[in-house]
Amino acid sequence: MKRPREESTSKKSVHHGPDAKRARVAESGEWTEFKDPCGLSQPVLETLALLGFTQMTPVQAATIPLFLKRKDVIVEAVTGSGKTLAFVVPILEMLLRREQPLSRNEVGAIIISPTRELASQTFTVLTPFLRHLESHENLPKLTSFLLTGGHRPVDQDLALLREEGTNIIVATPGRLDDILERNGKNEILKLGELEVLVMDEADRLLSLGFSSTLAKILARLPKQRRTGLFSATVTDALTELSRTGLRNPARVVVKVADAQGERKTPAELDVMWVRAEHADRMAAVVRWLSEGCISEWEDQQQDGTTDETSVTSPTSPPPPPPPPQKSILYLSTCAHVDFLRHVLAKVPQLSSFSLHFLHGRMPHSGRTRTLSQFTLAPAPALLVATDVAARGLDIPSVDAVAQLDPPMDPAQFAHRCGRAGRQGRQGRAAVFLAEAEDAYSEFLGVRKVPVRRVCFQPSSFAKLRDELGGIFARVATTDRAVHEAGQRAFVAWCRAYSEHQLSYIFRLKDVEVVDMAKAWGLLKFPKMSGLPMKSSGSFQPPFSNLRLSSLAYGDPVREKARQKKLEERTKASVASASAVSSSGCTGKPSAKNAHPKPGGAWSLQKERKERRKERREKKGRKREAIAKARANGGDGKTKGRATSESKDDGSSGDENEWEELQREEREAKKAKRAKKEKLVTEDGDDSDSSIGELS
Ligand SMILES: Nc1ncnc2c1ncn2[C@@H]1O[C@H](COP(=O)(O)OP(=O)(O)OP(=O)(O)O)[C@@H](O)[C@H]1O
């Protein structure tokens, strides 16, 4: 494959300091440098100047002329390097240069993004260009349309398109496919004049399972078009797509190099890893956010000192970096985000923070609102999110990213970090690794994502960890919903961790789960059968005299419903007990209900044995049923599962949270399958993991 131009920014140190942005852009050339046939038109140059884009970035300098020479392109460039303008500018040029201007409903360009958020962001980049072009009377009028699920019902989209038409579509794959299918024989939109197709974050489009949707879309588009694949990480999976969708593509790779060699993260981004056991991580994050305390964690490893001794010397304190102003904290599950939503506001160290929470299970409107609130929030602000916020989001004021857990998909690591240190600004990213997870830092190095180790005094977190555990536990005692959210989040976390793609590094059996449960302020240790973990035997509930069955929901309506259910259950069991006694039943009592009388035929030991046997059989049956259902392509649904109420009031026997999670997982998988099969109104929502709780 031909490499038309391979850019390489100079050493990292060159880009540090307040002039970083200017220095970097200055290297990349003037917008006016292209000569015909690639020279940019006056109105486009004017808009670039109006928007303050005075110079090109390397990826723009390399990609724009190729596109304008009518080449297909595969573009790989680090996060925040300006890929969006690298396709928006040539799209506009191609459409403006047409001999025959596009009519109202002739589509000249389609941009596909994996998520609604990214599609809206690209649409926002495009809009000011179109507005400015409108002011030129002699130019053809170009219109654009945002097509994503959750934005409007599909029928409304169709009606609007019929009425107004469009020339440029920015879409997520599901909704676009839906519209193209309903478009029939070009009744509403005419695709014959399509000049350009762009697939942004192309590897993500594939990893989200859109390959068959993309294939259907490609099949409906004219072959005589230019196609571009853009991403910060180009994976092998893209090769297949490029084979079917692109013709003899040129490849643009914008590399970053520092003293250590090539890297896949921007030079302005300081990526560090911090040794922190799981139980300590929230404390570490809170200190970082509130004190910018990574300055204390100077790397003393080279001179052989240990973590414990690596405290800043009182006589020569290092210049403390200021606390981060706008940060994103990445978690691996939606349930964990929901749990922190309940408790984080009560942490005194974060009282000045504006806190925001985002995950892929939130409704579209909530996601959009959260993002814009976070974007506009005054500093300090924190967004707690799953990987739904890992790709492409461009919030320039984000200066720090913390990853409480390394991402399930290793390719996501660089994308998460890349939300900070964008376009020449300095940024910091930290990931926390337990001792057993050390190998991950080497793994990242191999993947060309260099991470610098920073050390700290582990004991410095102990106090805050206990303090946070206490706060979370107290919040849980005020509302059953918080207690349940904590239980759910913990189970989901254990499950996600046990299914990590890098299972040779991340092993649940190495995690001190009891310490973690305490640090999370759990009121009890959730029962989780079937997961390979350290014993939970030593877990001491934080409040020994708290009866969980009496813990009420903060929401009176919900609590009333729970009380009603409890009452009904009590009545039902009284009724069944009296039915048994009045029938004078002399048969063998069921293992569960039998209460051995002293000296009776049933010894306690015998009863226990019976119970164990029954449980074993029950589990065996359940496993069989699940295996059978899976083999038949079903969802492994079993009968007789407990509701969350029945578990927590302690009346559910051997049903537990694990089963609740299994149920959620089955439902999520089912929903996901249905979503894919129907290719309905939903689009590239990031709720893409194998278990329902993930992002
Ligand atoms: N030529 C330029 N001059 C100055 N700023 C620019 C230029 N081009 C893009 N930017 C700014 O750089 C930021 C990053 O751009 P963009 O979102 O296109 O990056 P990206 O490469 O797509 O990143 P990601 O891979 O994370 O999606 C944006 O805020 C954008 O406005």
TrEMBL record:
Catalysed reactions listed for this entry: ATP + H2O = ADP + phosphate + H(+)
Entry keyword Glycoprotein: no
Enzyme class: hydrolase
Keywords attached to this entry: ATP-binding, Coiled coil, Helicase, Hydrolase, Nucleotide-binding, Ribosome biogenesis, RNA-binding, rRNA processing
Top-level taxon in the UniProt lineage: Eukaryota
Location(s), subcellular: Nucleus, Nucleolus
Ranges where the record places region Disordered: 1-28, 298-327, 559-695
Enzyme Commission numbers on file: 3.6.4.13
Skewed-composition ranges (Basic residues): 609-622
Limits of the Helicase ATP-binding domain: 64-252
Database matches in SMART domains: DEXDc, DUF4217, HELICc
Biased segments, Low complexity type: 572-583
Ranges of residues in domain Helicase C-terminal: 305-469
GO CC entries: cytosol; nucleolus
Locus of motif Q motif: 33-61
Record's compositionally biased regions (Basic and acidic residues): 559-571, 636-650
Segments of skewed composition (Pro residues): 315-325
Main location: nucleus
InterPro entries reported in the protein's UniProt record: CTT_SPB4, DEAD/DEAH_box_helicase_dom, DEAD_box_RNA_helicase, Helicase_ATP-bd, Helicase_C-like, P-loop_NTPase, RNA-helicase_DEAD-box_CS, RNA_helicase_DEAD_Q_motif
One GO term of the biological process aspect: rRNA processing
Molecular function as annotated in GO: ATP binding; ATP hydrolysis activity; RNA binding; RNA helicase activity
Name used for this protein in its record: RNA helicase
Organism: Gonapodya prolifera (strain JEL478)
